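new request in #modeling-help
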Amino acid sequence: MRFALLQILATAALLAQSADPGDSDPNINSRYTVESIGFTGQSHYRLSSGAMEEMHRLIGAKVSTEALTRLARRIRSELRATEVTFKLARGGEPNHVRVLLEVDKRKSNFDLSIPTFSYNSRQGWTGVAEASTTVGANTLTVGALSDGDTLAERFTGFKLKYDRLALKTDRIRLGFEYDSYHELYDRATLIALDNTPPSSLGAGAYRSRTDFEPSATFILAKPLTLTVGLSFEQMQPQVSAAHSESANAVVNTLRYHQRWEDSDANNQELDAGYNLRAATRSLGSDLAYTRHMINARYALRHEHQSVEVTLVAGVIYGHAPLFERFVLGNSSTLRGWNKYDLDPLGGNRVVHGSVTYGYHIMRVFYDTGSVWDQGKSPEAKHSAGIGISSGLGIFHKGAFLLAVAFPIRQGRADPVFIAGMNF
Amino acid sequence: MTVSNEDLIARRSGDLIRVTAPRLHFITEKSLQRLHDGSIVPFDFQFSIAAGTRSNVIERAFERFTVSYDVWEERFSVVRLRDFRKSASNLSANAAESWCLENILARTPALPADRQLWARLEVRSAEPKEPSSSPYADPGISITTLIGIFSRPPRPAQDHWSLESSAFHLSDLKP
């Protein structure tokens, strides 16, 4: 009996020896757990949410040369780097290692991207193209866009942004952005403007606007950040003889963004924020108003299934210009409704919620919300839709969505086709 | 890099011939740095035996060994990729190099007993950017791939070593 036990132990020891350093990874370090993944030096890079998710998935798992090589290739592709390599170093705890990614951007620190590209069969195309270059902790971004989706007006123009990604410490970032847009209005908006007393809006239609926005972002306690800044917005009226109007505001944004992965491979993500824009005459503003907005997004993914819930609520006190007013009925809110049917001028109150269920690439969603003006009664609207969404492997970042959405109302079904890409 | 012919010594072990090379050290410089950084470094080996003249190769063996360095234990590990599961761990750098040499073998039945023989060993580090340097691209790397690798001259950035023994007869070999 004792001999048999010894034989079993010896066999087990032999098996363990033969299994070392691992049956699938010739790297002896594959027996250690990844404690953290970061970049060498004081480097800062903007990565897609997909790459960030991949990094989070690897933390807490055993070292896999294959998975780390795949991650390095993905980051190399996203950053247009010459090479991305990884190093392992002892972690803070026994049997844990830190993964340090080293990015070689000697030949290329230039990035060309299309952060947004979407089509709504009612409201047309929206596209944003950006080119950015990073030297050390300095990033310069130039963008051109035409957006007929997010505001009551279509705005077309360019943006120029400088970011200092670290200021002595990587807990402080600085940004300076200059935007210049030309505005176009839907006929429904122009008619509504004609029928609206001038005093109820902060400004009527304007033909163009420019904005200069310096800001500082503080990482209070990861993942909580606070951005404080100023916005100097200048609006040129439709009639050239009239004088321009300004909306100079204090801008504050508090944001919380966290991802988790538990032992059952459930991926969770919470992104919540509060934004305040307060235009005040003390900054030389012609308009005075306060705009509060909160938003939250929670996503849960388990294997091939996912659920995403989003909530948005906002309120404006005072008379804000059109670009500040809330809009529903576009490619991301009350999908299926036409924003010009709901409120061609937008509103100064908004509440919106959305639930999306996904299985593999299939998506089913339900939106509900209301946009209205102070003193009027909110009227809840609902919509539902079905579509497909997936990451684009060849681009490694972003995703596309093709969907058909229906406003839920009595009488007729009037579908809206939505196509969106996010690189 | 070429080492003098006294540095490659052939030994007989039954029907097999293996070599020792006490002065050959290939876990050095760039490769050693990559290993200390926790990466794997594959090394490709070609062991050949010529008969009659140095250019008349009558027996060849190819192997790829993948070396890694335990960042906690500070010891080396080697995996022979042809059969993928022959491995050794907890080794010093010298011991890891010796283990590779012990596990590349030529067969004696194919060798003539009456002619002069020369043993030759070539070692190359796989380039980091070379697709085949990822053992996952080709886990059981084929002989064909290794023949292809050694049919090309080493690239300028690639570390490589070449050793040749003195002439010997099969009967001279010590076990």
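bot summary: Chain A has two domains: 21-104, 110-422.
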